[in-house]
Amino acid sequence: MRRKTLDTHRWKASGSWRVAPGRNAPTSRPKAIGPLSALGVLRWALGLLLLCSLPVFSQNLNQLQQQLREAERLQNVQQQRIQSLNRELAQLDAATQARLFELRSLEGEISRLERERAELSRQIKLLQSQVSETEAKIQALETELTGLKGRLAALINSLHREQASRYLPLLRAESFTDLAVRVRWIDALGARQTDLIDRIQVTVASLQDERTRLTLLVKDLNEKQAEREKRIQAMAARRQTLQGVLADLRQQQTGRRVLLRETLVSQQQLRQELSRISTAIAAEERRLAEIRRQQEEERRRQEEARRKQQAQPRAEQNPSTNAGPVVDLSSIPRELVGSLLFPVPSGRISAPYGQDGNDFQEISGPSAGSPVQAAADGVVIPPILYVANIGYTVTIQHSQNLITLYTNLQSLQVEEGQRVRRGQLLGYTGGGALIAPEQVWFRVGIINGGNIRYVDPSAFY
């Protein structure tokens, strides 16, 4: 925070005040006070300068308030971060549950396909065993058929070689009956060989058909097994992908939980820091209030001492004047002063004149930076004072008998010597560090014999 500086005031031999330019300070040259006695303004200015000699205590308070605002901002950021992390964790939990469900379904399907594959393997092995047995039978029958064909061929060759003598056994028959028996025997022998060959050929053909059928079954089962294997491999790849996704989701969940835990710890520490700063601000405000009270007491004490010191020589030089009646509010007719406009539109009196010995009326506007207006027509007389603790003070002379003062101004809209109209904007509240930013100290001064007496402004509204 930029440290507020205190302007230096100089008293010139001509009896007029000059104000060193500061922030929002008027830049025009001051003009003579005119009919208003410089002594009265000097007395009041000396009281203000007492505040200038004291250190500016607002810096520490402003720093604490800035720390409080920053801590509150960080708390809001952390709260938003916690909410975001909780939402992300909920989304990650939902995604993890969905992937787990999909993985369990996939593993169930893989188990079912593996069981089907095992069953197909068992059936294939059984069929392959049957094919092997059929092959063995076919081989044995083909061997037997080959042997029979060989014997039959040998028999035919023998019959051809012995064609001339084939009928000798018949001729050796002793009777017709014996001849018939021998003929039937020779025919039966040939028919038997032929029938055996036919039956073997039929059996071989049947076994070959069975082998073909079994081979087709094995082929079909192999195709089914290959299809199951392909699906199992695809599902296994999908399972591996899901396992990778689940591992990544669990890693993200772990990271979010770590961040959430750290953010919660940081938020707890920030709450403690907020409590500490709030306690420090309260203590600092109490300290500043006490310093302000002591400053006011010291100001009134020194002002009273100066008044007594200044009144004593005048009493010695002009006893008759000193013996006259003391001017108070009741002795000043309203017609002499006139009606004043309330200086803060929509404002209210937050502390009346005379409270805690104050010679001003504390008026609060609706908000910080409230506009402050001239109570009546007049001229802005020098000096326009600036004190860091109480801001700018503008003095307006309305007549030979009346002045008004407005303290705790900023962003001045008038300058010394300028003529103002009733209700004209002078500036805005909030110029001082020790006065609330929505307040203005309003004084009404009555001029009597070169002296200024501050009276209750409420009597002139």
TrEMBL record:
Residues 54-158 form a coiled coil. Residues 294-327 are annotated as: Disordered. Keywords: Coiled coil. InterPro entries: Cell_wall_metabolism_enzyme (IPR050570), Dup_hybrid_motif (IPR011055), M23ase_b-sheet_dom (IPR016047). Residues 294-307 have a biased composition (Basic and acidic residues). It comes from the Bacteria. GO terms for molecular function: metalloendopeptidase activity. Residues 367-433 form the M23ase beta-sheet core domain. It holds the Pfam family Peptidase_M23. This is Peptidase M23.
